[in-house]
Design a protein that fits this description.
about 220 residues; alpha/beta; binds ribulose-5-phosphate; Rossmann fold; globular; 2 domains; 6 helices
C-alpha cells in the first residue's frame, strides 16, 4: 500500500505538462514527486527543474531531470513542495527540512504553487510545529532574545552538536509560538528583526493544496487564485 505522502505527490505530478519550468521542493513528500517526475522525464516529458535545496538538486540529477537556475528564467510555471503545517486559508509553516529560504524564493517566482501533504499536516490553527527562522550566524543570540520578547520559545537547531548550517550557510532557530493567530503579521514582524533572513511562515503563496487522506485525495484551491 502506498503512503499518503506518495499518493499526494503522484497526484500533483499529473499537473506537470510538457515544456514547463518546474520548481522542485524539499522533504520526504517532495522526494516522491521528484522520483515520479524522473520516471515521466525518462518516458519523454520535456521539463526543466529548479531545485530548492542541494539535496533535491542531487536527487533530480540522479533522476535525469534537466535543471536550470534563475539566470535563465524569472518565472516558474509550477512548483511542487511540501509543508509542515497548512491551514484552511492555505497559510503554512515550512522549513522543517531547513530549505525555507530557497523554497520561499522559488514559491514567489511560481505561477502556481502546489503543496502536497498527508492528512496530519492539515491544522485548524498554525503553531504546534515550531516555526523555523533562518538567521545569519553573527549575533544569533540577539535574535534569539528578541524572539523570546515576541512571546516565542526559541531553540537553536543543532546537527551533531553543532549549529545546523543551511544551504546558504545560515543558522535556523526553531521558535514555538503555540498558536499563531495572525500569520501575515507575524511573518512580517519576524522579517523586520535585523539578522533574520527569512522565516517559515508562507502566506498567500500556496495556490493549490493536494492532501492525501487515507486513500482519498482532497484538492483545495486558494480562494483568490
Ligand atoms: C523543507 C520543508 C518541507 O517541505 C517540510 O518540512 C515537509 O517535509 P516532509 O515532506 O518531509 O514532511 O519545508 O524545508
Amino acid at each position: 500500500m502506498i503512503s499518503e505522502k506518495q499518493r499526494a505527490a503522484e497526484a500533483a505530478v499529473e499537473y506537470v505538462k510538457d515544456g514547463m519550468i518546474v520548481g522542485l521542493g524539499t522533504g520526504s513528500t517532495t522526494e516522491f514527486a521528484v522520483k515520479k517526475l524522473g520516471e515521466r522525464v525518462r518516458d519523454g516529458l520535456a521539463i526543466r527543474g529548479i531545485p530548492t535545496s542541494d539535496v533535491t538538486k542531487k536527487q533530480a540529477e540522479e533522476e535525469g531531470i534537466p535543471l536550470i537556475d534563475f539566470a535563465e528564467t524569472m518565472y516558474i510555471d509550477l512548483t511542487i513542495d511540501g509543508a509542515d503545517e497548512i491551514d484552511a486559508d492555505l497559510n503554512m509553516i515550512k522549513g522543517g527540512g531547513a530549505a525555507l529560504l530557497r523554497e520561499k524564493i522559488v514559491a514567489s517566482a511560481s505561477r502556481e504553487e502546489i503543496i502536497i501533504v498527508s492528512r496530519e499536516k492539515y491544522v485548524n490553527q498554525l503553531g504546534s510545529f515550531p516555526l523555523p527562522v533562518e538567521v545569519i550566524p553573527f549575533g544569533w543570540q540577539v535574535i534569539f532574545n528578541k524572539l523570546e520578547t515576541l512571546g516565542g520559545s526559541p531553540d537553536l537547531r543543532l546537527q551533531q552538536g553543532q549549529p545546523l548550517l543551511t544551504d546558504q550557510g545560515n543558522y535556523i532557530i526553531d521558535c514555538r509560538f503555540r498558536q499563531i493567530i495572525d500569520a501575515v503579521q507575524l511573518e512580517q514582524r519576524l522579517n523586520m528583526i535585523p539578522g533574520v533572513v527569512e522565516n517559515g511562515l508562507f502566506t498567500s503563496l500556496c495556490s493549490r493544496m493536494i492532501m492525501a487522506d487515507g486513500e482519498k485525495i482532497v484538492v483545495k484551491e486558494r480562494a483568490n487564485g
